[in-house]
Amino acid sequence: MFINKTKEGKNNICGANVSKFRKGMGISQRELADRLQLVGLDVDKNAVQRMESGQRFVTDIELVCLAKVLDCGVAALLETEQA
To answer: Residue 3: what pLDDT?
Structure first.
């Protein structure tokens, strides 16, 4: 059976990095949502919160918009901690 969750049970692997880059920019989840809307991605603060906590799946289209707004590469959003 195919399971599309991380080992930790999260629905995405980019959420922690979205949070890290957002905090590095000094903006709130609401501000990130507002900036995403300016580039054409219709999300609200709750969607950003759910992305960051891993409760929400993130599409490739959303990933590209996040990278643009957070001024980083898509690969940077997909990096994981290697133990």
So the answer is: 78
The tens digit of pLDDT for each residue in 16-47 reads 999 999 999 999 999 999 999 999 999 999 99
Structure tokens at 72: 């980083």
Work out the average pLDDT over 52-59.
96
- Report the SS3 class of residue 40: coil
In which region does residue 26 sit, left (phi positive, over 0), alpha (psi from -120 to 50) or beta (all else)? left
b vs e for 17-35, b when ≥16 Cβ sit within 10 Å of the residue's Cβ? bbbbbbeeeebebeebbbb
Q: Which helix (H) or strand (E) holds 72?
A: none
Nearest to 33 by CA among 47, 20, 21: 47
The amino acid present at 26, given as its one-letter code, is G
Of the candidates 81, 13, 78, the residue with the CA atom closest to the CA atom of residue 52: 13
